[in-house]
Every structure is written in structure tokens, then in C-alpha cells.
Design goal:
Low-confidence stretches: none
Strand order of the largest sheet: 7-11-12-17-16-15-14-13
Oligomer: single chain
Radius of gyration: 26 Å
Structural class: alpha+beta
Strand content: 25-35%
Number of strands: 17
Distance between the termini: 45 Å
Catalytic activity: tRNA(Asp) + L-aspartate + ATP = L-aspartyl-tRNA(Asp) + AMP + diphosphate
Order of helices and strands: EEEEEEHHHEEEEHEEHHEHHEEEHHEH
Protein name: Aspartate--tRNA ligase
Binding site for ATP: 204-206, 212-214, 351, 399-402
Domain Aminoacyl-transfer RNA synthetases class-II family profile: 128-428
Mean pLDDT: 95
GO molecular function, one term: catalytic activity, acting on a protein
Largest sheet: 8 strands, mixed
Length: 428
């Protein structure tokens, strides 16, 4: 490679002083760049344009003119030899955590307490480059499939799923809630566009303190009309995930290599009915069935292991969940009304998606509400679409942070959330 002068900017990620020169690692928006700084060959200027007489410091923001020189031992295959540096800002104090290593030598709590700074670590920020690329891949795929992107309210008068796990707030003297999901609104929009999606925040006031729960997370929601059955939703999600993961390989090769990500095969994801899943796990792993209407976390892990051993898939759709554990808008199976036309997608031992077919006729929806002791008057704007006529439809919601965490095999979903909100954390 012939030497040439380039202009760039970034922050000084690390400085290692050697005899007569220093290795300087420049952190740019996309990568870390190795620089060889020889003081006698480089002019350095302060923010006011005067010559800088002091030592450079880590986390200084700088502009640089440098020679690009071939260096096969460098990760990029080249390095920079600065000839002019202008300092843009000088940090007021030293970093409270060490961020320039491969790993941050601190607990998760310390990492999250210092999140605005620890995100500057190469591995930490790679997580969210990958997450961004996933969102781009999901969006691209859905728009290719004629889905319209919508943006629904996060301040609502009713929770989509009811119960106690909703955040209440005062809205000009009226009681309001933070949206648990865009469920009602995306169903409404099926009557307008037929296919819609939204990627946005949802809120759950659940007092969980586990490695898998957040009180605010990003949900990848879609809803589609004129379906023949909920299986169409499963295959749509399967294709969406396949598309996004293929795109990752092109967009995030450096990040995938850095984190040693195992990209799963997404072929024909297998299906298993809920009760069959419970029975097979109990039989294979000699454990009693305790919770009859849901899968507990250990069962999810064991079921994924079982399916992996039998089919090679790291995904599995669990279908026909009991009516008692699904929301009032879930459609029941005509042949088995005790179960619903619904599903969860499990990925590497964790539920990442919940979806299913919805009740679309007014009479059926009204009957189910009354059977559950619900007051239809509280859902007047929602029932408006059923009165006016709706096609058979259904949808799903995927937890973006959970999906990212399982893809990257992170030990806690908080590691896949920029600024987590849980029962203990409201800052930063």
C-alpha cells in the first residue's frame, strides 16, 4: 500500500508509551485504529490553536492528519502515522472504569452504573451495532412483504393485557397507563392496511428480578390480516429472522468476529404442541410437571435441548397454549376450546416471541370478555373494529433485547439493552 495522507477524527482510546514513540489507539465511530505517534514527526495543537506542550491523554477528542501505512500485523492491515493532531476536548478527570481491554473488569452493576462510558468499550458497543443491524433487517424484510410501519401511542387508557402489571400515571387528572404492547392499535390498523408492524418500547410493571426480564423493552410487533391460520405468522417470522441474520453477515462482519457469534441455521423451524412439550420434557429429563398452564424457565431450556438433539434446530415454535394463560383476544381452537391458536418461539433456551391468531368477530369477542368478567364498555374503541367487520388476522411480538441476548449468548438480557430499566434501575 502506498503511503497517503488521510484526515480522520475520534477519541484516544488507549496510549502505550514505548522508547521514542507511542502506540495510540484511535476510537472512531466504526472501529479502533492503530496509530504510531512519533513526537518529532507530529505537530499537536490545543483547542485554541496553540502548540500543545503536555502529554496526550486517553479520551481526548481529536482531529488528525496522518500517513496511512501498510502493516500486516494490524487488524485492519494498515496503521496511521499522525503528522498533525488538533485536540478538540480534554477530559476533566480519569475514567472511573477501565474500558480499553477486551473485557471490562467490573461487575454488571458497575458496568450499568457507568453505562455512558462503558458503552465505549469495543465489545460493548459491538452488541448494539449488531442489534441495529437486526432492526434494519427486520424492517427491510417486512417492508418487502408489504407491511406498513406504524407508530402507536404509548400513553393509553387501558392495558392491552390487563392485570396488575401496568404502570399507572396521571394524565391531566385522568388515570392513564404506559402501553404494555401496541396490540389494540396494530389490530385496528389491520383493518386499514392489512399488514402492519412497529418496533418500539413497551412497558411491564412486573416485579421480576431475573436475568431475562426488563420493565421497559423494545418489541418487534407485526400484525397481518386474511390469514388461513396462525402457522402463517410463524413462517413469516421464520423468514424475517432468516433475512435479518443473513444481512448481519454483510453489515457486521467485524463485530460478529469480535464477539465470536454463532449464527444459527434458520430453516424449517419445528413445531410442538404445548402439552406434548411438557410431557416430552418430563419424560426425557425425569422431572415432574409443576406448572400445568405454562413452561417454566428450566422447561424452556430443556425443551430447546431436546429439540436441538432431535432436529438440529436452535429454534422451536411451541403452539396451542392453554386458554387460561392467553389474553382475552386470543382465538380458541374450535376442536379444543381449552387451548388457543397461539404460539411462543423459543431460541436457545428462552422464549423470545409470543403470537397467535386473534378473535375477529364481534359476537365471539364480546362473549369471551363477558366470560372473563370484563366490562366491554371499557373497550369501546377497540370493539369498534369488530363491530365494523375484521378479516381473520393475527400477529406477534418479539423482545428485541431477548433475541439479541440469545443470539450473542449473553448471560443477562440487560447486557443487550442500552440503558436498562428494571425494578432497581431508573438511571442513567
Amino acid at each position: 500500500m502506498n503511503e497517503k495522507i488521510i484526515k480522520t477524527h475520534g477519541s484516544i482510546h488507549r496510549i502505550r508509551k514505548m522508547s521514542g514513540f507511542s502506540f495510540l489507539i484511535l476510537r472512531t465511530a466504526h472501529r479502533l485504529i492503530q496509530c504510531v505517534l512519533e513526537p518529532e514527526k507530529c505537530e499537536i495543537f490545543s483547542p485554541d490553536g496553540r502548540p500543545w506542550k503536555e502529554a496526550l491523554k486517553e479520551e481526548m477528542c481529536i482531529r488528525m492528519e496522518a500517513l496511512e501505512v501498510a502493516e500486516p500485523r494490524s487488524r485492519t492491515g494498515w496503521e496511521l502515522h499522525p503528522v498533525r493532531i488538533r485536540i478538540l476536548s480534554v477530559p476533566a478527570e480519569a475514567m472511573p472504569v477501565v474500558i480499553h481491554g477486551k473485557e471490562i473488569p467490573a461487575s454488571l452493576e458497575t458496568i450499568l452504573d457507568n453505562r455512558p462510558l462503558t458503552l465505549r468499550n469495543e465489545r460493548e458497543r459491538a452488541v448494539f451495532r449488531i442489534q441495529d443491524a437486526l432492526v434494519r433487517g427486520f424492517t427491510e424484510f417486512l417492508q418487502q412483504q408489504d407491511f406498513v410501519q406504524v407508530h402507536t401511542p404509548k400513553l393509553v387508557s387501558q392495558g392491552a393485557e390487563g392485570g396488575a402489571n401496568i404502570f399507572r400515571l396521571d394524565y391531566f387528572g385522568k388515570e392513564a397507563y404506559l402501553a404494555q404492547s401496541p396490540q389494540f392499535y396494530k389490530q385496528m390498523m389491520v383493518g386499514v392496511y392489512e399488514r402492519v408492524f412497529e418496533i418500539g418500547p413497551v412497558f411491564r410493571a412486573e416485579k421480576h428480578d431475573t436475568a431475562r426480564h426488563l420493565n421497559e423493552y423494545t418489541s418487534v410487533d407485526l400484525e397481518m390480516g386474511y390469514i388461513e391460520g396462525f402457522e402463517e405468522l410463524c413462517r413469516m417470522e421464520e423468514a424475517m429472522i432468516r433475512h435479518a441474520l443473513e444481512g448481519l453477515k454483510a453489515i457486521c462482519k467485524e463485530e460478529l468476529d469480535l464477539l465470536q457469534v454463532r449464527i444459527p441455521r434458520v430453516e424449517a423451524i419445528p413445531f410442538i404442541r404445548f402439552h406434548e412439550a411438557k410431557e416430552q420434557v418430563a419424560k426425557r429429563y425425569h422431572r415432574p410437571i409443576r406448572e400445568k398452564d405454562d413452561l417454566d424457565p428450566e422447561e424452556e431450556k430443556l425443551l430447546c435441548r431436546l429439540i436441538g438433539e432431535e432436529t438440529g434446530s436452535e429454534f422451536v415454535f411451541v403452539t396451542h397454549y392453554p386458554t387460561a394463560k392467553r389474553p382475552f383476544y386470543a382465538m380458541e381452537d374450535e376442536k379444543e376450546p381449552q387451548v388457543t391458536k397461539s404460539f411462543d418461539l423459543l431460541f436457545r433456551g428462552l422464549e423470545v416471541t409470543t403470537g397467535g391468531q386473534r378473535i375477529h368477530t364481534y359476537a365471539d369477542q364480546l362473549a369471551k370478555m363477558k366470560a372473563r368478567g370484563m366490562d366491554p364498555a371499557h373497550f369501546e374503541s377497540y370493539l369498534m373494529i369488530h363491530k365494523a367487520g375484521m378479516p381473520p388476522h393475527g400477529g406477534l411480538g418479539m423482545g428485541l433485547e431477548r433475541f439479541t441476548a440469545r443470539l450473542l449468548e449473553l448471560d443477562n438480557v440487560r447486557r443487550a439493552c442500552l440503558f436498562p430499566r428494571d425494578i432497581h434501575r431508573l438511571i442513567p
